[in-house]
Amino acid sequence: MIQAHELTKRYGDKTAVDRVSFTVEPGTVTGFLGPNGAGKSTTMRMIVGLDRPTSGTVTVNGKPYAAHRAPLHEVGVLLDAKAVHTGRSAYNHLRALAATHGIATSRVEEVIEMTGLQTVARKRVGGFSLGMGQRLGIAAAMLGDPRTLILDEPVNGLDPEGVKWVRTMVRYLAGEGRTVFLSSHLMSEMAQTADHLLVIGRGRIIASGPVRDIVDATREVSVRVRSPRAGELSELLAGQGVSLVATEPGLMEVSGRTAEEIGELAAGAGIALHELTPLRASLEDAYMSLTHDEVEFRTEHASASVGTPEGAVR
Ligand SMILES: Nc1ncnc2c1ncn2[C@@H]1O[C@H](COP(=O)(O)OP(=O)(O)OP(=O)(O)O)[C@@H](O)[C@H]1O
């Protein structure tokens, strides 16, 4: 479990992390989601004692990271997958890490197998692809069989197979009861991987909770209605606090009423419907609307908001 209380980090005038409080529970994958520069890495570095908080506290499994006698058994960390001595083989890198932390060599073989590195384990890390480097980083994080895993952007730059592998791996580890905390700037990725989300923007938590709740809370629902008697239906709906846009003859988008309510109303008036489709903002739209004011550097561009049919979530 990770518990942060009023965690704050300032660099000069810049507040990178601003009074952040949260709990990351065991047995779940918690996604730490935010645009570039939002404060994800700084928060993670403070959790593992690499940055000292300006104020506030953070504990892992009940104690500050530095207070653990065998931290590698408590917390596995992937912060920068490229921070490996590139002349060494993956096997030697892991063996050196294990030796300095009193971990048996047999565990090195285990994590190599767990991360699918068997065929490249004796090769120089310098020649590794990004995906292999990420696997090695996760192998190193798993070396101490830790109860808590912290992974900073573990899928960054991976191909679809690598992304899927990380996703399956972290879900499996959480299923074993471990605490898994991973960061990303991609909502679509987090929505498929995480159970809970912690959304951060400009150093502040702007949303937290189960993935579904966050998406539901930020989405704007409208309903696409097609009817040969659309004119009559729109008169019926008018004056009921709904907003209604006729997109083409016989077709309209209605906000302020659910599909069920519109269907009942139409049936009551004997009006046939040829289509009744709930529309919702995509996950990316929900994320954009959450973080819109929190992005450090924004490219200004006009973009039409296009609803997607329910179920066709991107
Ligand atoms: N050592 C430092 N000195 C000064 N400013 C820093 C330092 N480290 C981070 N920052 C600033 O703090 C803010 C948060 O950075 P951080 O790296 O934590 O964000 P992030 O969410 O991890 O972003 P990214 O996805 O780009 O890595 C940024 O504005 C960054 O420029």
Automatic annotation (TrEMBL):
- Domain spans labelled ABC transporter: 2-227
* Highest taxon, organism lineage: Bacteria
Query: Coiled-coil intervals in this record?
Result: none
InterPro entries in the record, alphabetically? AAA+_ATPase (IPR003593), ABC_transporter-like_ATP-bd (IPR003439), P-loop_NTPase (IPR027417)
Q: Which UniProt keywords are listed?
A: ATP-binding, Nucleotide-binding, Transport
Please provide an example of a Pfam family that matches this protein in its UniProt record: ABC_tran
CDD domains membership = ABC_BcrA_bacitracin_resist (cd03268)
Q: Which SMART domains does the annotation name?
A: AAA (SM00382)
Q: What are this entry's molecular-function GO terms?
A: ATP binding
UniProt similarity note: Belongs to the ABC transporter superfamily.
Q: What is this protein called?
A: ABC transporter ATP-binding protein
Give the source species: Georgenia wutianyii
